[in-house]
Amino acid sequence: MRNALYFGDNLKVMREMQRGSYHVCYLDPPYNSGRNYNLFLAGSKVQQKAFDDIWRWDDAARENQEAVLRYDGRHPELVETMADLSCCLSGFNTMLRASKGRSEAESMRAYLAFMAPRLAEIWRLLSPNGSVYLHCDAHASHYLKCMMDVIFGARQFRNELVWCYSGGGIPRKDFPRKHDVILRYARGEEVLFNVERKPYKANTQQVGKHSTLSGGHEIDLARGTPVTDWWTDIKTVTGWNPEKLGYPTQKPRALLERIIKASSNPGDIVFDPFCGCGATVDAAHGLGRHWVGIELTVLALEPMERRLRERYKLRPNVDYRIEGYPRTLQDALLLAEQNPTERLRV
Ligand SMILES: C[S@@+](CC[C@H](N)C(=O)[O-])C[C@H]1O[C@@H](n2cnc3c(N)ncnc32)[C@H](O)[C@@H]1O
């Protein structure tokens, strides 16, 4: 059984995984939004806290930073990266002290210390022609891109994808924020990439090799035009969307399908270390890929199991493995102890 869901802190789980295991990794971590996220319990209006995205410079943050500054060398291929990341974190600290108020600087520091060792592990786990897609927003995308340059190398940066959406939440004194950023990096020089094409605009006409609308560029009307780096055709999972499972921050399956098709082939293994209610594993399964997800919050298992059962008739521990899910109070307390933010509720 290659498909698996792990429950626990992804840093601990990833450290035990073999290098080069995954063809594509999508991650949608907390964004340092300063908010709590609640889950609607199945079939009811009752809410329970799923996870929070509020960061403080506390023991957990110090422990994350130590994982980089005093790397124990268990994976020799990460020693140099961790040394580079130590410089990067210390540069951020200097810059944050200068540019932000004390509490904002502390929370960004804590957030970046959390992300650093996890992004380094992801680099280790990708196959030589693999890719990573890091989903973030304007809260921290600028810092994360610098960190990714340090880990993967600036030359390995391939795209800044902009996912545009609409919906409520209109501020009075700012332009409404209606896009997320997805940073795409390749693990190596050779990268697996399948071009997706879409039809040209309805009124485009081909004249010889050229189009009447594209300013003289060569086109092939029958083949269609490649999807660009800004995506407006994928709706969020809100309102009455039948995909909605009640899990906060759920991402649409179509977003994951586009990413997985672009950077893997059937039979490859897709990895999501912050898998929430499982949009990635769902999309991967539908596309004939194997999948591995990691999630800290035990509340995510119910919606994940539900979608895999309803869409593919998959049975836990028969068709896919579940590792680390607490079955006893003692296990639950152990999982809570593992929580790097020390704020998991059991
Ligand atoms: C933004 S949500 C991901 C949502 C997901 N993309 C979906 O479509 O459902 C971030 C997830 O990361 C999880 N998480 C936070 N810290 C984690 C950690 N250290 N290890 C594993 N999961 C973690 C949270 O519980 C939350 O479910």
> What fraction, in percent, of the residue positions are helical?
25-40%
Q: In the residues, how many domains can be counted?
A: 1
**Gap between N and C termini:** 29 Å
CATH topology, anyone?
A: Rossmann fold
CATH class: Alpha Beta
**Ions, cofactors and other bound molecules:** S-adenosylmethionine
The residue-averaged pLDDT reads 90
Secondary-structure-based class equals alpha/beta
Describe it for me?
- There is one protein chain.
- This protein has one domain (about 5-195, about 235-340): Vaccinia Virus protein VP39 (Rossmann fold).
- The model is unreliable at about 340-345 (pLDDT under 50).
- The relative contact order is 0.18.
- Helix 7 (about 280-285) links the parallel strand 13 (about 270) and strand 14.
- It is built from nine helices and 15 strands.
- The protein has helices at about 10-15, 60-70, 80-100, 100-125, 140-150, 255-265, 280-285, 300-310, 330-340, and strands at about 5, 20-25, 35-40, 45-55, 125-135, 155-165, 180-185, 195-200, 205, 210, 225, 230, 270, 290-295, 320-325.
- Strands 12-6-7-5-2-13-14-1-15 form a nine-stranded mixed sheet, with helices on both faces.
- With about 350 residues, it is of the alpha/beta class.
- S-adenosylmethionine (SAM) binds near residues 51, 251, 295, 296 and 340.
